[in-house]
Specification:
Length: about 140
């Protein structure tokens, strides 16, 4: 699952020209986010886990459930009932953008891995603009 996305994440550090491929893979993949454990009727309602980082705060997003659950075990004192939610990228990214807009929060994709990367509000806006419902290549 998400093999093409992982290959793109790994290659992005040495080849920034992969950015559009990375955006496309992130937008079309099924991803995992750590959220407050309760039932949600839509991605817009997700209550994402955000944690302090060196520069501001980070909202972790993962390419697999195993990475999400492993990360949750490593962080100090995750909120009780934290679960990993499996969400299609096209639904996840607009919800993340709404959460981080105007804040110091960045999306951390596969944090604590060699291919982990941070996405700013502007990067997420660009991805949604390119691949979202109103985007040119949706």
């Amino acid at each position: 699952m998400n093999e093409d996305l992982l290959a793109c994440l790994e290659g992005f550090r040495t080849d920034p020209a992969l950015v559009l491929d990375l955006y496309k893979h992130l937008f079309s993949a099924r991803l995992f986010a750590l959220v407050e454990g309760r039932i949600y009727s839509s991605a817009a309602e997700l209550n994402f886990l955000v944690y302090p980082a060196r520069k501001g705060r980070e909202l972790p997003v993962f390419t697999s459930k195993e990475l999400a659950e492993g990360f949750a075990k490593k962080i100090s004192a995750p909120p009780p009932g934290t679960i990993s939610a499996d969400v299609p990228g096209k639904m996840l990214w607009p919800s993340i953008l709404a959460k981080i807009a105007g804040t110091d929060i960045q999306a951390a994709i596969n944090p604590a891995t060699p291919h982990g990367i941070l996405f700013s509000e502007r990067m997420i806006m660009g991805m949604i603009g390119q691949f979202g419902e109103n985007g040119k290549t949706a």
